[in-house]
Specification:
By secondary structure, this protein is of the alpha/beta class. It has nine helices and seven strands.
Length: about 270
């Protein structure tokens, strides 16, 4: 069953672009953004605005999808949508279509596995103990479909940079993200990526530096940070967190997640 979230502006904003892409095979918005920034955003791939439950209590916001080729993680040539509703259904149930028992199970994203480790201490998804290969697929499906992941820039690129992305260009993308976030009650809102510190600078309420110390008392990372945000938008003020990119961390992410969850719940009392 397709669940169209009428309470958000997301479907209304992206319908025209996706329907044009289905017809032409190109995203004119991605092409235009490439021209205006001097960066290469892949206009021949479907825009990736979100995956997961639009009403989820947990929201992870990423900068964009990054790939070394023109295919984003989780996307193959088989993704050929005939209607906007097909596109919407696929991204709302990304886990089911890629990781369930009846799915091809061809995708295994390292980034998603890292995010599962990070989120486990939050207790927001009933992950199973990863003792078998099948349990890993179960966790990937639950992670993908039970939280909401948003992309600030919905266009794939080989790497992300703020070069050329002026406040004027970022404004409609940031407003889209914030409109989605405030459309439903959330327990945790987490922005992932250090570039967000510049983008969201006016919302920063507190910063906390800490070391990551494992059970044996050995410090494995001394430069970790967690930023608390007060998102004032649309007549609401929401608490959010900002964390470093998972790709840059070579540490047990469950430890990092536990500390971030503790700081998030404490609020500004760092």
């Amino acid at each position: 069953m397709i669940v169209v979230d009428r309470d958000t502006r997301l479907t209304e904003e992206i319908r025209k672009e996706i329907e044009e892409f289905i017809i032409t095979g190109d995203s004119q918005e991605a092409i235009e953004l490439s021209i205006r920034t001097g960066q290469e955003f892949h206009g021949d791939r479907y825009p990736k605005y979100f995956t997961g439950d639009l009403k989820a209590k947990v929201v992870l916001v990423h900068l964009n999808y990054q790939s070394t080729n023109n295919f984003a993680d989780g996307e193959t040539e088989e993704n050929d949508f005939h209607r906007f509703e097909d596109y919407l259904d696929y991204h709302q149930h990304f886990g089911k279509y890629n990781f369930s028992d009846n799915a091809p199970r061809k995708i295994k994203s390292i980034l998603e596995l890292k995010q599962i480790q990070f989120l486990q201490p939050f207790g927001v998804v009933d992950f199973v103990s990863e003792q078998t290969e099948d349990s890993r697929w179960i966790n990937l499906e639950r992670f993908s479909d039970r939280i909401l992941q948003l992309k600030l820039i919905p266009y794939t690129s080989k790497k992300f940079s703020l070069r050329g992305l002026t406040p004027e260009l970022l404004k409609p993308h940031l407003e889209r993200i914030l409109n989605i976030i405030i459309s439903h009650p959330r327990d945790y809102i987490i922005f992932h990526g250090t570039a967000f510190e510049q983008i969201l600078s006016k919302y920063i309420a507190a910063k906390q530096k800490f070391e990551l110390i494992e059970q044996k008392g050995k410090s494995t990372c001394k430069n970790l940070r967690f930023l608390l945000l007060n998102l004032t938008y649309g007549g609401q003020t929401l608490k959010a967190g900002l964390i470093r990119s998972f790709a840059s961390l070579r540490i047990p992410l469950s430890y990092y997640g536990k500390q971030c969850q503790h700081l998030y719940d404490r609020g500004t009392r760092f």
